[in-house]
Amino acid sequence: MYSIERAIRTLTRLGLLLGFLALGLKLPCSAADQWPQFRGQNASGIATDQDLPDSWDVETGVNVRWKTRIPGLGHACPIVSRGRVFIVTAVSGEADPQLRLGLYGNIASVEDNTEHEWKLLCLSHSTGKILWQRTLHRGVPTIKRHTKATHANSTPATDGNRIVVCLGSEGLHCLDFSGTLLWKKDLGVLDAGYFRVPTAQWEFGTSPIIHDGTVIMQCDIQKGAFLAAFDIHDGRELWRTPRDDVPTWSTPAIVRGASRTELVVNGFKHAGGYDPGSGKPLWKLGGGGDIPVPTPIFAHNLIFLSSAHGSVRPLCAVRPGATGDLTVKNDEMRDESLAWYKQRDGIYMQTPLVYGDYLYACRNNGVLSCYEARSGERLYQKRLGGGKAGFTASPVAADGKLYFANEDGVVFVVTAGPEFELVATNDINEPCMATPAIADGLLIVRATNHVYAIGKPPVKLATIAPVSACGRMSSMFRRFRSWRCRRAH
Fold first, then answer.
1. I need a labelling partner for 355 at 20 to 30 A (CA). Which of 41, 44, 372, 483 fits?
2. pLDDT value at position 376?
3. Spatial CA neighbour of 55 closest among 366, 376, 411
4. pLDDT surpassing 50 at residue 126
5. pLDDT digits over 385-424, tens only?
6. Quick check: 471 pLDDT over 80?
7. Under 8 Å CB-to-CB from 51, ≥6 apart: which residues?
8. Whole-angstrom Cα distance, residue 489 to residue 160?
9. Residue 481: what pLDDT?
């Protein structure tokens, strides 16, 4: 039975829809229809008004809207805008390129000196059909990749008019939505690997972000690490700030605090905040894990940072507006800008998730911890799966559910809240390293060889009862709005 409140909300939306149509106005695009960068808007990993299924079956096709084969290898996550899904991949000259997943410690690089093709693919969000694909670069990779990595690790970003793609040493590329190359920028040789063994090459993995008409890149590499901003219209470099840090694979984040907007980055020697307009350093927090991967996130007026590997693995919350050096020494927080700090609770690969009042952090072995976000108090710790599969993809959330994908392609659906409840376990049946996207009623999962769109079947007006039609109108409104958005652009 649908509530009175939901019925009123649905009828209000229907009235707005009819009003827009009557006046011939453009229907505005909604945040529910967009997933514009790594982990969605502001890297939050959160979507609303999605009505996703708890379970699905890729063998029978139950709640699988479409499945599209993607050539090559890539851990770059899908992004969604204006009814399109964008995927980056690198196609090797080898018939069966090596990709070794699982829980293991190995600094080895893959020896593959064949010619590669780096491609951007544009898919229809509603059908999965490949609308176009463009080869952005062709050649032998400048830098080798780790046995667990690919040559297409960085997730693209979009402002709704342009798509920005980072291929590491193969350049920064900007295209329009028809696939026309607008500009290309050479970032130099971006050699990312284990800093203690400089000959170990693991390939670049940081993703671009877009802020106020600028493309921002964090390029922490073996020598000459830097932050830089480029004009999204022509690729012109606006500023560049050197960084004294080791290679990282973390994507920067924009934090809009009460007093100022900050560009926040993760790091081993220097996690911290910068002025996004000039690149000027604002504050610093040293002493993290020595292979930083998670992206900073912002919620409840707190900046959450996590890293692991090495002697410490900190998980902490920083108040925006900080200045100076916040580095913790002898386990003592010496600056009031640190809300809380845990030296051994950080996670290695995944970006944490703040959803509602709670912070969720899943280690690469599947151990999930839930914290009260404002205080840092741990509420539970449970293991997802049997402990044999690795977890690299970051969690995402929608409508009270959390989604965790392991490297074997098993997606765990967990109820959000202070108590652990496993709702369902769903197997994609092929390896998964990329973080899923959520947009316009679909959970979009990139696996090794395919992209899957998980969602409930489309509503058929002729077969639903009046009460059901009222309850489904919200979903229909969202899909119509997405269609109008695609048509308008």
1. 483
2. 98
3. 411
4. yes
5. 999 999 999 999 999 999 999 999 999 999 999 999 999 9
6. no
7. 399, 441, 456, 474, 475
8. 9
9. 55
